[in-house]
Write the structure tokens for this entry.
Amino acid sequence: MKRFVKMAAIAIIAAASVSAAFAGGKAEAAYPERDITCIIPFGQGGGTDVWARKVMEGMSRELKVNVTPTNVTGGSAGSIGTQQVWTSAHDGYVLAATSETPLTIPVTTPITQTAKDWEYFIAGGSPGLLCVNAKKAADLDIGSLDKLAAYGDKAQLKIAGTTGGLWFALASLVSDKAYGNWPFTWVSYSGSGPAILACVGGVDADLVVASAGEVKDYIRSGQLVPIAHMSTESYTFTGGASPIEIPAVTKSIPSIAKYLPLQQWLGFMVPADTPAPVKAKLTAAFQATMNSPDMKQFAVDQCAVIFNKTGAESKAMAQKSESNLCWILGDLGKTTFSPAERGIPRP
């Protein structure tokens, strides 16, 4: 009798183990069971917004649920939308669209999460350009980098962008006395899209720094004049009727070369403690999206290159960008908190 009871108990335990394993496998296979939200922490029309919407279109197709992009603006470097994702359940149902800009959140706000706390899916990026409103370029004769460098009243010029991140860091270097000493007035917007429109309008801003993909249509239409590639080499813009050779900003400001190149990148992220099976599903869907002919053509149309980085590779890229950007802003006195106190190593 005792032997029978013992065997029955073993059978029950074994059956329970199989059931649990099956249930676990079923749960893993089930994700996603419902629609997903992708929070875009910047305004419509900028690179983060445009790329997130395109990537999420592919993710919806691969995951077979709706992935709905939603703009939630505000805060330094997109901190309000990004924090909304962080305070949601870490279950893969709320994603954060991102660029390199939110990497500066821990040094510009009280929020302490750094790149180590996120898992990145890096899609692609486009070269950064300094552009001037076409009418202002004609009126002030500042339609080239050489002429802007020689212009004697730079303090009266306003440059538009999003505070924090790559373009803000580059504009800060250009304006700082120790480097370019071009004392532009920085005008902050909730994303590159609104900043570009402000410059196109020519009332609230005279210049804008943004990616080639973000400004391509305005260059084509003649509303913006690209005058500098924000890197150490010239850039040939081929998105218009004829190629435009755009000189490197270091031609006029060689001292910032030590900080360059700084690479724009765009994609999305989830908290690093999101369950591994969920991250695996997101990774597979992301890679399939990035390898599609549709996405490759989109990158060409956006004057961009595809990175398609996930896992350890994307984390390393994000942490390198974080180190560069946070320490540039820290050294220029543009941060509220020191990168060192946030545990961000100097590059």
Notes: The chain has two domains: 35-125+264-331, 128-259. The domain at 35-125+264-331 is CATH 3.40.190.150 (D-Maltodextrin-Binding Protein; domain 2). DSSP finds twelve helices and 13 strands in the chain.
